[in-house]
Amino acid sequence: MDAHADAASGQSAGTLTVFPVPAFQDNYLWVIDNGKDAVVVDPGDAAPVLAYLDSRNLTLRAILITHKHADHIGGVDTLLERFDVPVHGPAHEAIACVDHPHNGGETVHIASPAMTLQVIDVPGHTAGHIAYFLGAGAAGAPHLFCGDTLFSCGCGRLFEGTPAQMLASLDALAALPPATLVHCAHEYTLSNIRFALAVDPDNEALGAWHREATALRAAGRPTLPTTLAQERVTNPFLRSDAPAVVAAAEAHAGRTSLSREAVFATVRGWKDTFR
Asked: DSSP string of 30-84?
């Protein structure tokens, strides 16, 4: 299945559907359901989640949180007024609503919709950020819910973590199966591609993705999910050892022989000021 073929209506495979509920300017609140019960990831706003649940006659069974920022947790309390459900989230962040805290390395079992998720510790954007990996099975291809750690052709800003931490986190995500569908929390793809082209202008795969993403957005469709296979060849933050990215980082830094971590830090700093 093309990763973008059913993005507007949700990725449907096996017995589960994964749907991007839009919120705010550019957030996606991901809902996973089996046609009866649902799980929501990072519900920053309750209203669009409730509207989606009601439109499909779904019952919420669990909430998954990746990190503490308001646009990821702001709707939880309202959802809990209607649904008495567990709230999974990072153990190392002060989030009052989380009653199932995770450090990373745990397994989350949800009875309905039936799924087993692996929790991955991915500090960098925030100190306690976690991600959830749903292996292949009822949901078809593997799925990654990565919050603000990994974006299509980008990664999160380092608000609390170090370049070394974020690089290690991205390495952990990049090691997942290539077919993994990447469910990022924001529609940042076109702006990220614009920066990626400044770093790696001769990347043919990136140019092709630019054309496809531009067409998707012009049609009012999400560019997500993307795949790890695509990110590995287009995302400069996953390619800190690629010759073109190294050369661009060294030119930007005005010095040579940068370590892989220094290349990543240089490109991340460059992106922070890129206009």
From this structure: EEEE-SSEEEEE--S-HHHHHHHHHHTT-EEEEEE-----HHHHTTHHHHHHH--
